[in-house]
Specification:
Blueprint lengths: L1 E8 L1 H18 L5 E7 L3 H9 L5 E12 L2 E10 L9 E9 L3 H12 L4 E9 L13 E5 L5 E2 L15 E7 L4
Parallel strand pairs: 2-3, 2-5, 5-6, 6-7
Antiparallel strand pairs: 1-9, 3-4, 8-9
Helix pairs in contact: 1-2
The structure holds inosinic acid (IMP) and magnesium ion (MG).
Length: about 180
């Protein structure tokens, strides 16, 4: 199957929204230091752009949790890379590309709580609320609510491709006719 990408959120819209989120976060955390945790690989573009828009002291760490293959959630969470530093006593801001079923995040937030972070907040570029399976996730900051479609770009992939698109696009699959 071949696929085409249709723009859902333009580069300008994404960048504007990230600017606004950065301002909001800077205001809400005034006087504090933020420990940003990026969920690899999808969250990396968003985290870099967001961090540049936050005018507070901050530190960063990265972790990798996999739950997806192709376009279907397997429901199985796999901790592929753990954090380098302990989070105890830190004000953690988890930065995600997208929340879909919510399984990845609920697992992660529990883990960070167990490790005694002093606060854990969640910032996601995209949210697909219709798809939520784990209902009790509090999204503190969200770039865009989007409909139930498989999207790529700005860090998000389809089988590891399209992460480098500077906009968010919907993947449309086409039958290849011979
Ligand atoms: P959840 O555990 O179902 O919430 O899945 C979250 C993870 O699945 C995200 O961090 C993404 O890596 C991946 N994912 C969910 N929806 C999409 C999508 O539309 N495009 C690309 N990746 C997605
Ligand atoms: Mg992800």
């Amino acid at each position: 199957m071949a696929e085409t990408i249709k723009v859902l959120v333009s580069e300008e819209e994404v960048n504007e929204r990230i600017k606004t989120l950065g301002k909001q976060i800077s205001e809400n955390y005034a006087g504090k230091q933020i420990h940003m945790i990026c969920v690899l690989k999808g969250g990396v573009f968003f985290m870099c752009e967001l961090a540049k828009r936050i005018n507070l002291p901050l530190t960063m760490d990265f972790m990798s949790v996999a739950s997806y293959e192709g376009t279907a959630s397997t429901g199985h969470i796999n901790l592929k890379k753990d954090l380098d530093e302990p989070v105890e006593g830190l004000d953690v801001l988890v930065v995600e590309d997208i929340i879909d079923s919510g399984r990845t995040l609920s697992h992660l937030i529990k883990l960070l709580g167990d490790r005694k972070a002093s606060s854990v907040k969640l910032c996601t570029l995209l949210d697909k609320p219709e798809r939520r399976v784990v209902k009790d996730i509090k999204v503190d900051y969200c770039g865009f609510n989007i409909p139930d479609a498989f999207v790529v770009g700005y860090g998000l992939d389809y089988n590891q491709r399209y992460r480098n698109l500077p906009y968010i696009g919907v993947v449309e699959f086409e039958e290849e006719n011979s």
